[in-house]
Every structure is written in structure tokens, then in C-alpha cells.
Specification:
Jelly Rolls; 12 helices; nine-stranded antiparallel β-sheet; 3 domains; alpha+beta
């Protein structure tokens, strides 16, 4: 194992306190700090020290793929780290978005010469585990509930949307199409009419809160078609291909397949390709958006997901607990959000303080983690 220096992304919706506090730096930070990237994504690869100078993890993987990735992983994913581990700290809503499945990504990338929607040929499933209380929108809820919420505003122009939703799951596609195709010149008036309605309750509160940042965005109403999820620390949400979702506020550990393919669906000034989004979305009700951790050993839990690109484990150790041994395939990235931990893979040993991370190669042995604190361990899930 060796220390891994992550890269901070300064997107406007980021917190000025969460990542800085995690790393023991003064707060507030000089600017927004939205994400801490701990991987080999070409957009912001993490680095390791080589003779006093930082070298990107991407360069190391390319130079020694069998050592860092292993023959099986290279055969399955190519010379690339197939996952990206992040700390995500949202102080304002992110865009509504969805991601293509693997086949859609390959076909879309091959056909998208301008790289408008498909910048790479990979899918982008995501898992987010809350470090703090975390608000998100995730997956379609019962359309009858959405119909009742939108009908309560009493806005006549929304009656076709309500009618579509009252048709059950089969009407979800039409409801989304109607809202996202709303004439641009009429969008601010639509949101204003919704805000003017004297309606109480969580749905109205959600719409009013989103409208503060997006007063002319029909995504304010699309949000009411989704589950509004409030995670407590340790709970997670899983975003497979075609799942419409948005992070609203909070800090979490996110692991995802390493891709930049995003199709937006509102709550953004960026481009929304309605036709392509409708093609990718899965118009089905998500019965339970929250994923609870599954114990797999003393002090170790995971959140099982049906992909090979990544797996995420959390190790929690109290003072005096025996070391935890994890035999996980491929390269491993370890993040320590709290406490102090020693991590050894038979090749190297690192001591991690809060906010620090380490990386180990596929050619190393099982991880042995000792100390008092918490670690999130990212790996591949090849069987």
C-alpha cells in the first residue's frame, strides 16, 4: 500500500466545509469543494509519490498494467481502473440525471461523433453511502402519489401531466416528456404558478426548495415523480442504468464505474437532450430506493450491487479490536474518514489519518487493517 493523493473538484454546488473538515484543513475553504476523486479517471487522476514528485495513478497503470491491475482485470476491462471512489459533498442540488447501460454506452459512443451525450463507451452505475444525513431523489415512485402531489397545486396547465400519471407506470414516460418539453417561454410562469399555490406538505416544500435555485426549470416538477430519500449515515442508494436521480444535500462516499456519460433531466442550466433521455430511462417504479449494509464479517459490511466494475466495503474498528483481513481481487483503494488506521497488503504499510487514502496493486496480498476508526475499501467485484 502507498499513500494516494486525491484531487478536489470545485463544482459550484460543493460544500465549503465538509471535505476540508474531513481532511483537517481550516473551514470554510476558499471556494466550493464538491468532490474528492480517488482513482485513475483521466479527468482528475489521483497521484502517488515517486522520488518526491507526484505521479498520476493513470500513468502507473499504463506503465505496469499486469502489476497494478492484474491479467484478469485487464482482460475484462482493458488497461484502466474500472471504478472511481469519491467523497461527494453537496451544499446545493445537483442536476436530475440518468446514465446508459453498457450496450447503450457502446452504441451511443460509436454513433456520437461530436461526443455530445456519450463521451466514452462505458456505463456508469453508482452507489452512494451517506457519511452525514443526506437528501436525494432516486427512482420513480408510485405514479398515483405523484399525480396527487401535482394535482394539489391546482394548475390547469398541468392537467395532462396528472392524467398521464393516473394511468399508472405506463404513463410515466408521457409525464416526463410533457414536463421536459414544456415551452421555454412558459417555464418560469409554470413554476411561479406552482409556488403561488397554497399547498402544504413535503412535496410542496420540495418544489419550493428546488425553485429557489431553478425558478424556470420544469425539473422542479419532474422531481415530484421520484422518491425523496433521506439517508442516515451508513444507508445507501443504488443508481443502476436508467435510474433518474439527483443528489440534493449532504456528504457521502460514492463509488461508480469510471465513465462521464450523463444524460441530464432538469435542475441544470446545461443541455437536456429530452429524446435521448427518454430512450435511456427505465420507466418502472422503484419499490425500495434505500440499500442497507450487509454484514460480511466482524466489523465489515458491504452494499451488494449487480456489477463487476466495483465493490465497496466498510471496516469499523474500535480500540482493542483484532485486525480485519480482506481478500479482495484487483487493485484496492482505501479511504479513512475517521480515526487512525494502519493498512498493510504484504508489500507496503501505510498509516492513515482522517481524510487520507491509500492504494495497492493487484499483485499484492490481502489487506490487513488495524487501529481505531473507519475505512471504506473500493475494489473490483470479479468472481
Amino acid at each position: 500500500m502507498e499513500l494516494l493523493q486525491g484531487r478536489i473538484r470545485d463544482y459550484a454546488w460543493g460544500s465549503r466545509t465538509a471535505i476540508a473538515r474531513l481532511q483537517g484543513r481550516p473551514v470554510p475553504s476558499d471556494g466550493p469543494e464538491a468532490e474528492l476523486w480517488l482513482g485513475a479517471h483521466p479527468g482528475a487522476p489521483a497521484t502517488v509519490d515517486r522520488d518526491g514528485s507526484p505521479v498520476s495513478l493513470t500513468e502507473l497503470l499504463i506503465a505496469e498494467p499486469d502489476h497494478w491491475l492484474g491479467e484478469r482485470l485487464v482482460g475484462r476491462f482493458g488497461i484502466r481502473l474500472p471504478f472511481l471512489l469519491k467523497v461527494l459533498a453537496a451544499d446545493a442540488p445537483l442536476s436530475l440525471q440518468a446514465h446508459p447501460d453498457a450496450e447503450q454506452a457502446r452504441a451511443g459512443h460509436a454513433a456520437d461523433a461530436e461526443r455530445v451525450n456519450y463521451v466514452d463507451p462505458y456505463h456508469k452505475p453508482e452507489l452512494l453511502v451517506a457519511l452525514s444525513d443526506f437528501d436525494a431523489l432516486c427512482g420513480f415512485r408510485d405514479p398515483a402519489e405523484s399525480a396527487a402531489a401535482i394535482a394539489a397545486f391546482g394548475v390547469p396547465a398541468l392537467e395532462p401531466v396528472v392524467a398521464a400519471l393516473r394511468g399508472g407506470p405506463a404513463g410515466l414516460r408521457e409525464a416526463v416528456r410533457l414536463l421536459l418539453s414544456w415551452p421555454a417561454a412558459e417555464r418560469s410562469g409554470l413554476v411561479a404558478d406552482v409556488l403561488a399555490a397554497e399547498v402544504a406538505g413535503p412535496d410542496a416544500a420540495l418544489a419550493r426548495g428546488l425553485a429557489v435555485d431553478y425558478p424556470a426549470d420544469p425539473g422542479v416538477l419532474v422531481a415530484l415523480l421520484l422518491h425523496h430519500v433521506r439517508l442516515t449515515p451508513g444507508e445507501a442508494i443504488w443508481m443502476p442504468a436508467g435510474n433518474l436521480h439527483a443528489y440534493l444535500r449532504g456528504t457521502g462516499v460514492e463509488i461508480m464505474a469510471a465513465s462521464d456519460n450523463v444524460l441530464r433531466g432538469g435542475l441544470t442550466p446545461k443541455r437536456v437532450d429530452v429524446d435521448e433521455l427518454l430512450r435511456v430511462l427505465r420507466f418502472e417504479v422503484l419499490d425500495e430506493p434505500v440499500v442497507t449494509p450487509v454484514p460480511v464479517g466482524p466489523g465489515v459490511v458491504t452494499w451488494p450491487v449487480p456489477v463487476e466494475d466495483f465493490a465497496l466495503h466498510r471496516v469499523e474498528l474500535a480500540a482493542g479490536d483484532p485486525a480485519v483481513r480482506l481478500a479482495l481481487p484487483g487493485p484496492r483503494v482505501v479511504l479513512c474518514p475517521t480515526g487512525g488506521l494502519t493498512v498493510d497488503d504484504g508489500v507496503g504499510t501505510v498509516v492513515l489519518a482522517p481524510g487520507q487514502a491509500a492504494v495497492g496493486s493487484a499483485s499484492a496480498g490481502p489487506l490487513v487493517i488495524l487501529g481505531e476508526g473507519q475505512a471504506y475499501v473500493a475494489s473490483c467485484a470479479l468472481s
